[in-house]
Amino acid sequence: MYKALAYKEWIKIRWWAVGSLILELLFLIYIFTNLRAVIEYNSAEMIWSSVVYKSYMFFQSLKYVPFVIGIFISVAQYLPEVLDMKLKLTMHLPLEENRVLLFLNLFGTTILLLLFIPLVAVLVIGSSIVFPSEITYAMIISIIPWFLSGFLSYFFVSAIMIEPAWSRRLVIAIIGFFLINEFLVDVILGGFIKIIVVLIVFTLLYNYAHMLSGLRFKRGSK
Predict the structure, then answer these.
(1) What is the pTM of this model?
(2) What does residue 138 show for φ and ψ, rounded to 5 degrees?
(3) Which of these, 55, 54, 52, 62, lies nearest to 32 by C-alpha position?
(4) Which of 45, 127, 165, 203 could form an S-S bond across to 136 if both were Cys, CB 3.0 to 4.6 Å?
(5) What is the residue extent of each domain of the chain?
């Protein structure tokens, strides 16, 4: 049963996932092309000074990419279900409602994880080639909240689409806006290091944000 459900979800998401990979590739090309130009036309001392004293982040243009990809996957997964009321049929499968919702959530989260891991890996490898380990570590700390915002955008957009009551949709949207904004604020390189654990915990807590919305969707709660 779960295998069939996973196949159904993959059919909906697959082209959005491919498009997200292409988007990541384009941004990586842009980032490292710019970095190469900076290295060629500036001295090592100037680049080091910019990184240390001006918090130069060669990966800055990647900031909103995970956030957008999270929305892509959420829309691809849940919009067809809501428009055609297929989600109610899915939740009437001979499986417990909570398990179905949890499976859908885990499937989308896994897709995001598989999309984000190669992106982070390329960034880390590229940074390690050019910069010392301290700079690469600071970069990792800086980008973790951006990727967490991708998971949060997936959770909140899913909850908004599934939620049957417009008043609750508005509340979820407002909470999501202000919370995600905290993950995308401009800080110095590595500036999130003191609160990174808190941000991860918040993301895990909101992992189940759309579970209640899903149950209300089945019951048609207004």
Answers:
(1) 0.86
(2) -65, -35
(3) 62
(4) 127
(5) 2-219
